[in-house]
Amino acid sequence: MNKIFKYTAILEGFSYLALLSNMLFIKPNNTDLYKFFLFPIGMAHGILFIGYVIFSILIKNNQNWSFKDLVVVNIASFIPFGTFYIEKKYLKNA
């Protein structure tokens, strides 16, 4: 399950960056393209985010994380590039 969480963290980070880049770069230039990409990227990011949070709660005991570590892992999902940091620091032996 640690490996699945590791891949979910990486994919969630990429989907977050894709969503941010879609909102920053495509929206001002082309609203039709923005609407075309917004729903699938947003839906994928939402599913991956929920999976990230659920997996982090499920593997808390397996990784011997304290409650503080669990909070840090979950807060990192709100910060761009945060899940990549978590993948390197907390999941390096997964």
Automatic annotation (TrEMBL):
Residue ranges that the Swiss-Prot or TrEMBL entry lists as coiled coil: none
Keywords, sorted A to Z: Cell membrane, Membrane, Transmembrane, Transmembrane helix
Signal sequence, renumbered to the chain: none
Pfam families xref list: DUF3817 (PF12823)
Membrane topology reported for the UniProt record: Multi-pass membrane protein
Subcellular location field: Cell membrane
Residue intervals of the DUF3817 domain: 3-90
Regions that span the bilayer: 7-25, 37-58, 70-86
PANTHER family: MEMBRANE PROTEIN, MEMBRANE PROTEIN-RELATED
Identification of the protein by name: DUF3817 domain-containing protein
Organism: Flavobacterium myungsuense
